[in-house]
Structures are given as structure tokens and as C-alpha cells.
Amino acid sequence: MRKVSDLIQKGPGDGPRRPFDHGELPFVIRRDGAWLYRGSLIGRKELVCLFATVLRRDAEGQYLLETPAERGVIAVEDAPFVAVELGWSGVGLDQELTFRTNIDQVITAGPKHPIRVAYDLVTSEPTPYVHVLDGAGRFPLEARIGRAVYYELVALAEPCEVCGRSVLGVWSSGCFFPLGDLPDEGQDGSA
Questions:
Q1: Domain ranges of the chain
Q2: CA distance 46 to 54
Q3: Has residue 2 got a pLDDT over 90?
Q4: pLDDT in tens, 55-89
Q5: Residue 162: HSE in the Cβ half-sphere, 13 Å Cα cutoff
Q6: Residue 67 · residue 114 · CB < 8 Å
Q7: Cα–Cα distance for residue pair 114/108, rounded to 1 Å
Q8: Is the predicted pLDDT of residue 52 greater than 70, yes or no?
Q9: Can you give the pLDDT at residue 13?
Q10: Residues 129, 118 contacting (CB under 8 angstroms)
Q11: Helix (H), strand (E) at residue 7
């Protein structure tokens, strides 16, 4: 006896049902986390949250809106989400850092949700991210950590040595996440 879920997933034919591919869709997620449709701001947070539930990332790193029936590629200027609030409890190895995103997802940094910092090649300015969801390949869906939240992280940071480098970083869920290198002693002429 066939299950209803088998019929929905596979359809009446032999192979698995594939969503209809629309190609490029007229959506853009700006660097500040705002969603645009055909150049107009989507102002209803509930609608943005709904679209975010079907946001995926494929093995090539493209962002998609994908339902069981249809899919299409969208443009994302940086990361699709922004971490806008930080909560923390505990200290050291027992510390837990939680981030709330612009769509009210709450993520606790740890082994499944690491924090990483990318650096601009020209300015060396840091841009921190936290892993939100796995993608289909090696490209995850991430939240860019907002500037004010990053300053809060730096205030919680402590020095540590990682792979022979002196770094400043934060603990969360038993993991240490480097935020940046500590300056070498004596660089400014002092010992």
C-alpha cells in the first residue's frame, strides 16, 4: 500500500518529482537584511519570515527560494540574515552565546553553528558571521553579525593561543571562536 507522502514526493510517474525551475527570480536580499521584490521593499516581516523558510543554498553557492513545486535563484548581496542581538550566559568553557537574527531565529554558537570572521582584502576590516543552516554543498546559510553585536562579542573576548597564534576570541558551547589576532608585543617599540 502506498503512502500519501510517497505520492506527493514521487508523483504518479517513475522518478522523483522535481520542482519547476523559474531561473532567476526578481528578489534581492540586501546587505542590511532587507528583502526586495522587483526593487520594492517587502515591508511585512511576516512575509519575509515566510520566504526565509524556503530559502536554500545549492552546491554551487547560489541562493534559491525552493518549495516542493517550484524554485528559482535569488540575489543576496552578502549574507541572507543579520544577527541583530546577542545574549550570553556563563563564562569560559561554560559560556553560551545566542544570536537573534532579523527574522527572529535564535541560534546558539557552537559546533553546529560556528562563528567565523572574514577580512576585506583591501581594508583588512573584519566581517563576522554565524552559521545558521547547512546548504546543499559546502556553502552554508549564514547571518552577518551586525556591528553593535560584534562590539559586544569583542567585549566578551579573551586571549588564547590557537595553532601557535595569539588571538582574541569567544567561547560558546565548549568551542573557542577566534575573532582576530592579538598584536605582537613590542610592535609599538615597548617590550
A1: 4-76, 81-181
A2: 13
A3: no
A4: 999 999 999 999 999 999 999 999 999 999 999 99
A5: 16
A6: no
A7: 9
A8: yes
A9: 53
A10: yes
A11: helix 4-10
Report DSSP state, residue 120: -
Q: Tell me: pLDDT of 106 over 90.
A: yes
Cell of 22: 523559474
Please, which pLDDT band fits residue 14 given cuts at 50, 70 and 90? low
Question: What per-residue string of b and e applies to 8-47 under the rule 16 or more CB within 10 Å gives b?
Answer: eeeeeeeeeeeeeeeeebebebeeebebeeeeeeeeeeee
Return the ∠ at Cα 103 (arms to 52 and 25), rounded to 5°: 30
Domain 4-76 in CATH 3.10.540.10? The answer is yes
Considering only CA atoms, which of 82, 81, 89, 135 is closest in space to residue 108? 89
Query: Domain 81-181 maps to which CATH number in 3.40.50.970, 3.40.630.30, 2.30.270.10, 2.40.50.140?
Result: 2.30.270.10
